[in-house]
Queue: 4 jobs
Job 1
Amino acid sequence: MSDVMELYRQKCVSAEKAVSIVKSHDVVDYGFFNGKPVVCDQALAARHEELKDVFIHTAVTIPPIPEVIKYPGSFVYHDLQFSKLTRVLKSSGLPAFYLPIMYHQAPAWFRDGVADHRNVVICAVCPMDRHGYFNLGPHPSATLASMEQADAVILEVVQDMPRCLGGSEESVHISQVDYVVEAPADQKMTDLPVAEPTDTDRRIAGHIMPFIQDGSCIQLGIGGMPNAVGKIIAESDLKDLGGHTEMLSDAYVDMLLSGRMNGARKPFDIGRVPYTFALGSRRMYEFMDNNPAVSAYPASYTNDPKVIGQIDNFVSINNALQVDLFSQINAESLGTTQVSGNGGMWDFVIGAQWSKNGKSFICLASTYKDSEGNLRSRVMPRLKEGSIVTIPRHQVDYVVTEFGAARMRGQSTWSRAERIIGLAHPDFREELIREAQSMGIWRQSSKKDA
Ligand SMILES: CC(=O)SCCNC(=O)CCNC(=O)[C@H](O)C(C)(C)COP(=O)(O)OP(=O)(O)OC[C@H]1O[C@@H](n2cnc3c(N)ncnc32)[C@H](O)[C@@H]1OP(=O)(O)O
Ligand SMILES: CCCC(=O)O
C-alpha cells in the first residue's frame, strides 16, 4: 500500500467519530456552496444536547436543509450569502445571521488572522487521487485558506462531486487532513433548477447586448437575469468572448458550448474561464468534470479588482433588488430583512471600471408584484429605512431595466435622477419626478418624460 493510501486508511472514520472533536463554543466552517457537508452535519446536529454555542459559518445554503440550524441553542448559524433556502429557514423562525464580506479578501481573512479562528473545517470534496490530493470540487473559494489555519480538518468525500481543474488552491493533501469521512454512494450533487429567462430578462439583456463586442470578457452574477444574458449571448453571432467570473453558472456552459466564448483574446487564462464557485444544474457539474475550459481559483484571484482590471473590454453584469434616485444600489436586503448578500458585487463593479473600455451593468426589473398582486416600483425615491446600500452612488456605472441602460458614472445628482426615472415603469415616473423635486435633485429644464 502506498504511503498516501496508508494515511487515508488511518484517517478514514465514521462521521460520528470525526465530529466528536467539536466542542462547545468552537467556530466551525462548513464548506461553502456545494462544500456543505451532509453526513457530518447530521452527526454534528445529533450532538445538540451536549453542545452549546458552536458557531457555524457557511455561504449560500443549498438543499438539503442543514440539520444544525434546527438547534439554535447549540449552534449559531452564519451564512455569508443568503440563498432562498436561508431566507425560508430564517422566516420560519430559525436563526441565521448574515456576515458581510468583501469576497476577494476572504482567503486573506484567514491567512492574516482577521477572521475568527476556525477550530474545525468540515468540507465536502472529491475522492482522493493516487498522489494523495482531494480536489475541492466546485468551491475553491477561501476553502484552502480556512483549512490552513484551522485546528482540525474533516473531509466528507462525495463520489459524485466533479473534479475541478485549477487554477490554484483547488486541492488539499491527505497530510493536511485530520479525518476523512466517506459519504454514502447515493449522496449526489444538488441539481439546482435553471430559471428560463422571462420577457423582462430578455428585454434587459437586449439593452446590454450593444455594449458587448467580439473579444469582450464576461462576468455574470447570481440571479435569474445574468443567466438570461448568457443564453442570449450563446444565441448571438459574437465571437472570441472571454469569461472570468466569481460564480460559474449554466449560462457559461451555453456560451462555451456554442463556441461564442473561447477566451482567445484574453491577456492570461487564455482559453479558460476562471471561477471560484459554481452553482447550477447537474448538466453543468457534468460539464465541469475534468474540463480544462473552466478553471478553479480562490476568490483572492477571481475577484481581485486588480486582476479584473487588467482584462480589457471587461463586461460585468449583476443583479440588484432596488435603486433609488441618488443611484444607490441595494442588492441584498428589503428594509432590515436580509435577502442575499453583497458577495463579490463590489469586486466586479470596481474591477470592470478599472478595465480599459470595461463596463459594469447593474440590472433590475423596474417593478415587482407585492403579495396582494399590486404593481410596485423597484425604482424608489429613497431606499426604505434599514435597507443596505450594496454599491454607493459614486461607484455605480450603468443601471439597466427593461426600459433601457443609463450610465451614472460622471453624472451629477440631477442627471442621475433624470436617468434613473427614465428607467422606471411609466406608471411611477410622475411620482418619482415630484420626489426628485422635493429632494432638490430635479431641474425644471429636465425632460418631463425623463
Ligand atoms: C455570485 C455572484 O453574484 S458574483 C458577484 C455579484 N454578487 C452579487 O451580485 C450579490 C448580490 N446579488 C444577488 O444576490 C442577487 O442578484 C439578487 C438577490 C439581487 C437577485 O437574485 P434573484 O435570484 O434574481 O432574486 P429575485 O428577483 O428572485 O429576488 C429574491 C427575492 O426577493 C424578492 N424581491 C426581489 N425584489 C423585491 C422587491 N423590490 N421588493 C420585495 N421583494 C422583492 C423576490 O420576490 C424573491 O423572493 P423569494 O424569497 O420568494 O425568492
Ligand atoms: C461568499 C460570497 C458569495 C457570493 O458572492 O455569492
Job 2
Amino acid sequence: HWGYGKEDGPSSWYRNYPVAEGNRQSPIDIVPNEASHDRDLGPIMTNYDHCTSINISNNGHSVVVEFNDSDDRSVIKGGPLDNPYRLKQFHFHWGGKGHEGSEHTVSGEGFASELHLVHWNAVKYKTYGEASTAPDGLAVLGIFLETGDDHRWLHMITDVLYMVKYKGSITDFKGFNPNCLLPSSLHYWTYLGSLTTPPLHESVIWIILKEPIEVSEKQLGMFRMLLFTEEDDDQKMRMENNFRPPQPIKGRRVRSSN
Ligand SMILES: Nc1nnc(SCC(=O)Nc2ccc(S(N)(=O)=O)cc2)s1
Ligand SMILES: [Zn+2]
C-alpha cells in the first residue's frame, strides 16, 4: 500500500499509479507574478452555514472530517466553477517539528500545513466516486496554515484528535461549520490539477487562497500525535510529513482572482 515513507512514499507512487507522471498533477509551486490575472474570474462563494459535519476519522494518511453531501446545503460556487460543488470532506497535510508541511508552495516557499476542503460536482455526476475520475468532477479549496497565534476555532478539532489517534479510528463530529477556518480574504489562485494522493485522479479544479490562517505551534503539535499505524500495530509511526512535493507544471496556466 502507499504512504509517505522512504519505500512507499511519493517517489514510488508511479509504480501502482502511473498517472503520477501525468500532465495535470498536484500540488505545484505557484509563482504569483507568472499567474495571469483574469478580470472575468469572479469571486468564489462558500455557503457552509447549514452544512452538516458527521464524523472525524484517521484514515492512515490524514485526519478527515466528513459531511453529509446528500443535498446542496453546503457548497462552493463562483470563480472558475460553472456550477455549485458540494462539500464532501476536509483534511490536512502537515510537516514535522519546525519543518514545512504544505503541499502547494508559493515562489518555492512552503507553509507549516495545508487544509483541503474537497467538493464534488453533483450537478453533472451522480456520485462522488464518478465525479472523482472526471476532469471537472472535483473542486478543492486549499488554505495555508502558518504558525503564529492560537487559532480560536481549530481547538474544536485538536481537542478531539486523541479520539482518532490510530489508523481506522472514527468518532462523531457534528455541528462543525468550516466557515470558521476561512481567512478574511477569499482572493485565490486557480489551476487544473489532481488528487495529491493515490489514486491521483486528474479531476480537480484547485482554488488556493492567498491569505493563510494562523495556528499555534502547540495546535500543530497536536496533529503530530496522530499515528499512521493501527492500534494493534506494535510499530507506532507518528503521523507527520504527510505531504506530496510540488509536481511539474507541464505548461499549465495558473490564474489569479485579483
Ligand atoms: N469511489 C471513490 N471514493 N473515493 C475515491 S477517491 C478518494 C478520495 O477522494 N481521495 C482524495 C485524495 C486526495 C485528495 S486531496 N489531498 O485533497 O487532493 C482528496 C481526496 S473513488
Ligand atoms: Zn489533501
Job 3
Amino acid sequence: MVPDAAPYDALLLVSFGGPEKPEDVVPFLENVTRGRGIPRERLEEVGEHYFLFGGRSPINDQNRAFIAAVEEDFRTSGLDLPVYWGNRNWDPYLADTLRRMKDDGIARAACLVTSAYSSYSGCRQYRENLYDAVAEVGEGAPRLDRLRHYFNHPGFVEAMVDATLSALAELGDDVRHDAHVLFVTHSVPTAMNAASGPEGGAYVAQHLSVADEIGDRVRQETGHRYASDLVFCSRSGAPHVPWLEPDVNDRMEELAEGGVRAVVVVPIGFVSDHMEVIYDLDTEAAATAEKLGMQLVRAATAGVDPRFVSMVRDLLLERAAVERGEDVTRASVGALEPSWDVCPPGCCANQRGPRPALCGRD
Ligand SMILES: CC1=C(CCC(=O)O)c2cc3nc(cc4[nH]c(cc5[nH]c(cc1n2)c(C)c5CCC(=O)O)c(CCC(=O)O)c4C)C(CCC(=O)O)=C3C
Ligand SMILES: [Fe+2]
C-alpha cells in the first residue's frame, strides 16, 4: 500500500543551525543570544569552543546526513514527499526556505524540530520563529504543522537503549558492573523548566521518563540495574540566575569521591553530535574523567539510526491521518502519554512576554 501523506506535500526539518567557518562564529553567536542576556565572558568562552573545532559546528552536516537518510527512507517506503530544511540561527534560514517552498508550490508542510522535549528553547521559541518566517514570506507561504514531541517515541528511545548498551560493553570488564550511568541534557534556567509544557515541569519530567525507560530496558538486556542520575551540561546565563543542576562534571567529582570508577554518559537531550556533545561532553567531561582517574564512555546520539530515521515517517503519517480525520494509534514508550499535536495555551511560555507563535492554541 502506498503511504498517504495527504494533506501534506512536504516535510520541513526545523533546526538550530551552526557556524561553518571561523568568520561565521561571532555573527552566529549574536544571532543566538540576541535579547537573551548572556554575559560577554560566556560568549567569548563559547566562541573558543567553536574555534577549537576550526570554527565549524558539526550540526549542519549532521542535519544534511539526517535529511539524506529520511529521503532514502521515504523513497524505499514509496512515500513521494520532498524534504526541506530551515534553521533558527544560521543559513539556511527558515524564511529563505519557506520562500523556496512557496516557489516550488508547496501549500502545506509538516515540521519536525530537532529538539525532542518541551521547553521554551526547544519548542515555543521554534514556534515563534515559524510565525516570524511565515510573516516575512507573506502571501502564499506554506501552512505549517509541527509534529509532536518524540522523546518517548520508540524510534528515539530504542536507538538510545542500544547506544547505552554499546557504551557499557566498551567499559573494562573490571569496572563495568559498578559503572554509573549519567543521562545528560542541556541545562536550562529553573524558571524555564517550571514553565515548560502545559502544566509546567515537563522538561525534567520528560527526561526522567526517558531515563527510566532506558534503565528498565538495560536491566532486561543485561540483568543488572545500573545506578544512574539525570545531569546537565552547557549552563549559560548570568551567574545569579538558577539553572538546572547538577552539572555533569560536578556529579562526576562526587561519584569519584564515593569510589565510582567508571561512568557511561548518555546524551538523551541531544539528537546528534553537535557542539554541546563534542565539546561539553567529549572534551570537557572527558577531561574531568581523566583528572579523576575514571573511565568514561559516551553513548552515541540517535543521529541516523534507522529507527530514529523511520520515526519521522511514522510521525508524519500519523499526523496526516489525524488531519484527514482518521483514528490513529500513537507509538510511545514509558510512563508519559504520547505528546499533543497542537500546543495547549500557555505551553512553554515565553518568560519575556507573549509573542505570536504557530502550531499552538495561542
Ligand atoms: C534546551 C536547549 C537545547 C536542546 C534542544 C535543541 O536542540 O534545540 C539547545 C540546543 C542547542 N544550543 C546550541 C547552541 C547554543 N545555545 C546557547 C544558549 C542557550 N541554549 C539553551 C537551551 C538549549 N539549547 C538556553 C536556555 C540558552 C541560553 C540562551 C537562551 O535563553 O536562549 C548558545 C549561546 C552561548 C551559550 O550561552 O552557550 C549557543 C551557541 C546548539 C547548536 C550547537 C552547535 O553549534 O553545534 C544547539 C543544538
Ligand atoms: Fe543551546
Job 4
Amino acid sequence: MIQLDLKKKLFGADGQIQLQVNTIIQSKELLTLYGPSGAGKTSIIRMLSGLMSPEQGKIIVNGKTWFDSEKKINLRTQDRSIGIVFQEYSLFPNMTVFENLKFALPKGDSQDLIEEMLETIGLQNLKDKKPNWLSGGQKQRVALARALVRKPSILLLDEPLSALDTAMRNKLQEDILAFHRRFELTTIMVSHDYHEVKKMSDRVLLIENGIIANEGNPEEVFKD
Ligand SMILES: Nc1ncnc2c1ncn2[C@@H]1O[C@H](COP(=O)(O)OP(=O)(O)OP(=O)(O)O)[C@@H](O)[C@H]1O
C-alpha cells in the first residue's frame, strides 16, 4: 500500500499551480493519472521516484517512509523499490539489448532473469542488437524489461506508449498488463489516451490544476 500526501508549488507557462494530492494506492493496483497537459501528472511520478521533492508531505510504502518533510526523510531513487519507463527511449545506445538489461541487474544476481525477461517480451532473437536496430515498440519493451530486472514492487510509467502507432500501442498495453500481473506489481501510469486508461486501469485519478478532480474506476470517472 502506498500512502501519498504531496504538496508542491509548480511553476509553468501559464503561471503557478499548487499541487496537492492525497490518496492511498492499494498493492497490485493499476492506477492511471489522466488529465490535461501541465496538470501535474509527471510531477507526481517524479516525486514518487525521488527525482523531485515535495515541499511538504509524506510518501509511505508498505509501512516504510520514503519521504517525510517533517522528519526530513528523503530516500534516494536507488533506495526506492521502483522501476521507471519514460516516454523517450532511455536505453544506452552503445550497449546491446542484453547488455542494457545486464547493466540494471544487481551485482551477483543470476543472468537467468534476463533470459526470462527477453522471453516474456519476445526479443530473445534481438538480444545482441544495439537499440538503433530496434523499432520504437521494441525499444519500449526493452525499457520495460530493464525497469523490472531489479524486481521492484512499484512500476512507474510516464506516457511510455505515446510515441507508438496504434497497433504497437495495443501490443505494449498487453505486455504491461502481463508484467503487472506476473510480477504482482503496483503500477502507476500517466496516460493521455482515454481508450488506454479505460482498458488498463483498476482506478483512475483525474488530475486537474494539481489536484484530484475526480477518481474511481474508469466507468465512474468517464460516465459523462
Ligand atoms: N521542479 C519543478 N518545480 C516547479 N515546477 C515545475 C518543476 N518541474 C516542472 N514544473 C512545472 O509543473 C507543471 C506541471 O508539469 P507536469 O509535467 O507535472 O504536468 P503533466 O500533467 O505531466 O503535463 P503533460 O501531460 O504535458 O506531461 C508544469 O507547468 C511544469 O513547468
